[in-house]
Write a structure and sequence with these properties.
It is a single chain. With 108 residues, this protein is of the alpha+beta class. The chain has a domain at 18-80. Helices cover 13% and strands 14% of the residues. It is built from one helix and three strands; from the N terminus they run βββα. It has one helix at 67-80, and strands spanning 18-22, 30-35, 52-55. The protein has a three-stranded antiparallel beta sheet, covered by helices on one side. The protein starts with 17 loop residues before the first strand and ends in a 28-residue tail after the last helix.
Length: 108
């Protein structure tokens, strides 16, 4: 899914989540999972207000996605926003000095 070695975190989903991917380190830790609207979230008391996808990558993860990783990301967006026929395009630029920058606004 990524072209370079980057940090990728994981979460502890509720039993109601659908785990789509786990870390490749053999731990089985979920790094991509989803909830249907109304599914109980991990706190056991809150129903998901809408479809939700949890994709755990750090700030540099998206820039390192392979074409397959980008397709997975796009598929997650289309699943969450089924009425979205054409995904918006975004341009991401890494600051020259390696500093972190806030994410650019995305408009639909």
């Amino acid at each position: 899914m990524e072209t370079a070695s980057v940090q990728f975190t994981w979460g502890v989903p509720a039993a109601t989540a659908t785990v789509v991917a786990t870390l490749a380190d053999g731990s089985g830790s979920p790094c991509l999972y989803a909830y249907e609207k109304g599914a109980m979230l991990a706190d056991g008391a809150t129903p998901a207000p809408a479809r939700m996808v949890h994709m755990f990558e750090y700030d540099n993860g998206y820039a390192a996605f392979t074409p397959e990783g980008l397709k997975l990301f796009d598929a997650a967006l289309k699943w969450v926003l089924p009425g979205l026929a054409n995904l918006p395009t975004a341009s991401l630029t890494q600051p020259a000095n390696g500093a972190r920058s806030p994410p650019p606004p995305i408009s639909f």
